[in-house]
Structure formats: C-alpha cells, structure tokens
Specification:
There is one protein chain. The chain is mostly helical and 295 residues long. It has one domain. The chain is built from 13 helices and no strands.
Length: 295
C-alpha cells in the first residue's frame, strides 16, 4: 500500500497553481465588473482543485497500465512505480471527480443548470486525456484541451457564476484573462512534455512535443510566455491600467525561459515546472488584486 506521503506526491501538488490561478483571475474580473460572490468563488476553487487532482490520478492510472511511466524522469507515479495498485489509483481519481461534481452541482443549482453540461464535458476531457482506447493526449492535443478547460472554461466560468452575465464589461476582460492563464497552463504541459520526449517517443506517446521536436517545443514555450504578457496588457486596457502589475509574472517566468532555451534536458527541466506554475499564480494574483481594488 502507498503511504500518505506517496498519495500526496501522486496528486502532484506542484501542479495545483494551475487550478488556483484561473479561479483567482476570474474572481478578480467578477469583482471589477459586478462584485465578487465569495462563496461561489470558493466553490469554483473546490471544483478546479478537485478536477486537477482527478486529472493527475487519472493520468497516473492510464499511463501506468499502458507502461508509459515504466522509465519516468519526473515526479513519482503511483502505478508506474508499483507503490499503489491501479484500481486504487482509479478509485482515487473518481473520488476527486465526485468532489468536483458535488461542488459543481451546487454552483449550477444557484446559477444556471446548463453548467452541468459544461461540468460533464470537463470530466470527460479530464479522463480521456490519457484514458480510453484513443487518448487525445497521445495525439498531440493535450495543450489545446488545457488551454480550453484550464484557461477559457475555468476563468470565464468562474466570472460567470459570480456575475451571471456575459455582458462585455465582464466577458471581454474574462476572455483576455483566460488567454493569459491558459497560455501559462499550456506552458507547464509543454515543458513537462519537452522533458519526456525521449521516453514518450519510445512508449509511442505522440505528444505535441514529440511531434514538433525539442527545438520547436522550446520556441513554443517562449511564445506562450509572451502570449501571457500580451494578455495582461489586454486585461489592463479593458479594465484598469493598474492590472499591468500582472507583468510581474515575468520575474519567475524568465528563469524558466532561460533554462528551456539553454537546451536543458531531463531532470534539469523539472524546476521549470515549478517556476512556470509560480509564474501562472503570480499572473493571476497580480492582475486580480488591482481589479478587486478598483471594483
């Protein structure tokens, strides 16, 4: 049986900024536009965190039973390392999905029932990233889905459940914020897949990094960081120029860019996951605080 510490490691806590950031950014936009509803923001955070943990356990299970994690460079995987039985990890994934579902149902019941459909699609996207007979994560589509669900859906959805409107005063800033958050969430996955190019190639896992090759993947990482900077300016132009404080995310992001562009491989790329996650969280907080203050 896996120890509590191993289960915690399997949940991959370093990825959790990617779940916190969209809720922070979306709540900031809601506060600026119409006033934040803090209990709904908290429920949105529960949904986002639970989905992130569920994705991590689901990936651990699906990659583990395929043998993709047999020779892993990055953080420990429960199934691949033999620390936990596949069935136990699968149950943990569905437990996390259940937590997200309960919180999501409360939000839907107090906002709009069509949000249930959005939640179901999000759960399916989370499972079939590496699950099923033809996982889209093995077809180079992982980054696209991360941008959609941990960027557009998460940020715009967080704003909507609090404002209950798609009026331009909240919708456009939310979309701009979603682009910034989504770009950095994608950057986390890009550097993760850059690190795993050798092992994924052997395992037949055709991630976008495998398709593009190392050099183009490094360029993509830089492009995503630059896109996040442009999105920050767009949010400021649509709301308050104080939101330019969000450009402070470049401080941790630059460290990651330097490492990636230096040609680092394998374990040398692991710290970039943390610095990119920190950059995403910094983007969200440094943009949201001025929006809340100006709201």
């Amino acid at each position: 049986m896996a120890t509590p510490g191993e289960w915690l490691a399997g949940a991959r806590p370093r990825t959790l900024p990617a779940a916190v950031s969209p809720v922070v950014a979306g709540t900031g936009v809601a506060a600026y536009a119409d006033g934040a509803v803090w209990w709904k923001a908290l429920l949105a955070l529960v949904v986002s965190l639970a989905l992130q943990v569920a994705v991590n356990y689901a990936n651990d299970y699906s990659d583990g039973i395929r043998g993709t994690d047999a020779d892993r460079v990055g953080p420990m995987r429960l199934v691949g390392s033999g620390a936990a039985a596949p069935g136990a990890v699968k149950r943990a994934a569905f437990l996390a999905f259940g937590v997200a579902g309960v919180a999501g149902l409360v939000l839907a019941a107090t906002t709009a029932w069509w949000l249930v459909a959005v939640g179901l699609v999000s759960v399916l996207a989370a499972w079939f990233y590496t699950g099923g007979s033809r996982p889209y994560g093995y077809l180079g589509l992982g980054e696209v889905m991360v941008f959609v669900f941990f960027g557009l859906v998460a940020v715009v959805g967080t704003t909507y459940v609090q404002t209950e409107t798609f009026a331009s005063g909240s919708f456009l800033p939310a979309v701009y914020a979603a682009v910034g958050i989504g770009a950095l969430a994608c950057a986390i996955l890009v550097v993760n897949n850059l690190r795993d190019i050798p092992t994924d190639t052997v395992a037949g896992k055709r991630t976008l990094a495998v398709v593009l090759g190392a050099d183009r993947t490094r360029a993509l990482y830089l492009l995503l960081v630059l896109a996040a900077a442009v999105a920050c300016v767009a949010v400021a132009a649509a709301t308050t120029w104080w939101a330019l404080a969000g450009l402070g995310f470049l401080a941790p992001a630059v460290r990651g860019v330097r490492t990636v562009l230096s040609g680092a491989v394998g374990p040398a790329l692991v710290p970039v996951l943390q610095s990119t996650g920190l950059a995403e969280l910094a983007w969200a907080v440094l943009v949201a605080v001025p929006l809340v203050a100006a709201g």
